[in-house]
Amino acid sequence: MRLTILNGPNLNLLGVREPHxxxxxxxxxxxxxxxxxxxxxxxxxSFHQSNHEGVLVDLIQSAREQADxxxxxxxxxxxxxxxxxxxxxTFEGPIIEVHISNSPPQSxxxxxxxxRMVISSQCRRRCTRLANYPKACPRRSA
Length: 142
What we know:
Blueprint: E1 2-7, H1 19-22, H2 27-41, E2 44-49, H3 53-66, E3 69-73, H4 82-89, E4 95-98, E5 125-127, H5 133-136
Parallel strand pairs: 1-2, 1-3, 3-4, 4-5
Helix pairs in contact: 3-4
């Protein structure tokens, strides 16, 4: 299994930015936990973060040939990025959308200005409230 994990804008600031909402866990800690689990599961892992929409689009397009599944936290692009949505539509494997905070379901707008989450429509599963991800997911040992 080849897995690509994509993290959108400002997730490089996890642990610093609004820890009362997003928790104190850093992206580096999440990456380490994902790498450990991938080794346990015998999966190949590609882990990325970008603040730039086009870079995420390029990574999704690359995943078409290099991954069997995508896990994506589109962060702020959840509501605005038709480009990321269109790129995800070209990926034939499963796509799982994750969010660290309790984001509303696609049918409920966060605010009239933002509207609905556009990315959710292309994802097989959606996970929210992962601010304490390393605590919530037990570590496995090989």
